[in-house]
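Good morning C.,

I know you're traveling, so I'll keep this short. The sequence:
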Amino acid sequence: MNPEHYRLLEEARQALPDGFKVELSGDVIVMQASPSSIHQLNLDRVRLQFDVHRPAGYFSTGNSDISSPEVGAVRNPDLTYLPEGVIDLEEHNIPAEVALIAVEVVSPSNPDNDWTGKVRDYPRMGFPLYLIIDPRQKTVTLFSEPNHDRYHTRTDREFGETIRIPEPFGFDLDLARLVPYRD
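The tokens, ready to paste straight into the viewer:
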């Protein structure tokens, strides 16, 4: 993406009001309202399991701006793991290539953002793993092995099962306590 075009879009994104999750995907600025308590509960149950297995020198964060100017994307994963060294960065945006994973809990109001936009953007940005928790469908999907514009591997599981999370985490994520959205 043209650096000047990206800079203008990034300025517009940062000028938007607080209280929203704001992302940039190419020429589109994506805004979402605050997540529900079911969303937050599922995210917490997953984060607690990941925290036990996170590599030394990494910390968990949610809704941090993870950027990839060369592909024109700024995303805010519900959960990611970053090296502690990023706290010394001057800019608000953290380079995507340092993140270990993107975890998203699908929003009932905008599922296409997680299932289409982020499935497109995350491999291009260099996220090695992308985990989607979908309380609408009671499923969990792990995308891995990114190569430019797509992931080569997809693993699907249902709530109640387990899913293997590869290195650098290396554990079986228990999906038994995840809660579906209520109809």
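Safe travels,
E.
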